[in-house]
Amino acid sequence: xxxxxxxxxxxxxxxxxxxxxxxxxxxxxxxxxxxxxxxxxxxxxxxxxxxxxxxxxxxxxxxxxxxxxxxxxxxxxxxxxxxxxxxxxxxxxxxxxxxxxxxxxxxxxxxxxxxxxxxxxxxxxxxxxxxxxxxxxxxxxxxxxxxxxxxxxxxxxxxxxxxxxxxxxxxxxxxxxxxxxxxxxxxxxxxxxxxxxxxxxxxxxxxxxxxxxxxxxxxxxxxxxxxxxxxxxxxxxxxxxxxxxxxxxxxxxxxxxxxxxxxxxxxxxxxxxxxxxxxxxxxxxxxxxxxxxxxxxxxxxxxxxxxxxxxxxxxxxxxxxxxxxxxxxxxxxxxxxxxxxxxxxxxxxxxxxxxxxxxxxxxxxxxxxxxxxxxxxxxxxxxxxxxxxxxxxxxxxxxxxxxxxxxxxxxxxxxxxxxxxx
Length: 422
What we know:
CATH superfamily of the largest domain: Thiolase/Chalcone synthase
CATH topology of the largest domain: Peroxisomal Thiolase, Chain A, domain 1
Distance between the termini: 14 Å
CATH class of the largest domain: Alpha Beta
Shape: globular
């Protein structure tokens, strides 16, 4: 087997650039330092009024250019954070000029939001005032609204900005979105369709409508008086996830191409696994089949056995159901001696569409620094979670291979195996 090919003869996929925007800071260095320190990025929401909301806390990214103006819409926020993360990743990869491959952008679904709807409603009059037909008429000719809320528009503008090749791909697979974007980039390189790919996961949905929708699903923590203690994955008193936002970007290249141009290789994406169960619009099948299948598929795709995984970067949302299902998956895949598993969502919250990409970056940093990030707020262990969750304090460890789990609403599951640079 060639040192630049995997066990199936496919090009090995290297990561040569990474970028982050999280509630812990702008850039990889600040976010990773905060994570290893066990620092929480969760706070009271300041962006909009929270009167009458059941949940009033979130992981917020405060963009400097937002000061003194109305909050950005979710698509505007996604685009700005994606651009920041991608700029850091491309610069770190040492790529100048146009990017030599396609863009895969993982992002949330978009729709016209309440501020814009209310603005249109105020422009309507007569018997139809405030009704949708009149609002649609008021929106006629509003190119700004069309471009702001066009799902593919963000990817098009980012592709222009970074000079990527081919049609940019925008996708959304619920909480697995960021990992899906990476999977598409990996597969394009493995098929020989591209020598490089720019993969981004971005989320900007800390907004009233999204908060209310997740609250109606009883998915969010209501520990409003203690924001920094609210996200408690795998802990007995967990009650829901904490909404968050941010972006992560990875520059992927074939190992051969990266070495040919003298790039620094940060790590490898060794395997991808994807399974869906179509059980329910939000819930996973209680039998855990798709979660277990995605974990096993990623490990097999990497040409590994479960015992060769040193650490698992958990999906770890802190909802009672997710943590139970992930524990089931861990025991089914790894047996009685599972590797350590921890959840960075305990510190940065659930970044939804960005989570899978963020956690891939954190997995690479775990390998680089040989440090396991902690699961903070682990006060009362749950007897139903017999796992080493790296409670409260980061830990040095020998780590060569990491399994990164992303389990989405509706049973959309993607797992990645990250490995050390050769």
